[in-house]
Amino acid sequence: MVAQIPKPKSAPIIYPESDGLPMADNTLQFRWIMTFYYNLEWLFADNPDIFVAGNLLWYPVEGEVKIRQAPDVMVAFGAGKGDRGSYQQWNENNIAPQVVFEILSPGNTQTEMHKKLLFYARYGVEEYYIYDPQRNDLSGLLRPPASEVEALPLQAIEEMQGWVSPRLKIRFELADDELQLYRPDGERFSTYLEVQRRLEAEKERAEQAEGRAQQAEERAQQAEERAQQAEGRAEQAEERAQQAAAQLAEERRKAEMLAERLRQMGIDLDRA
Question: Are 70 and 97 in contact (CB under 8 A)?
Answer without folding.
Answer: no
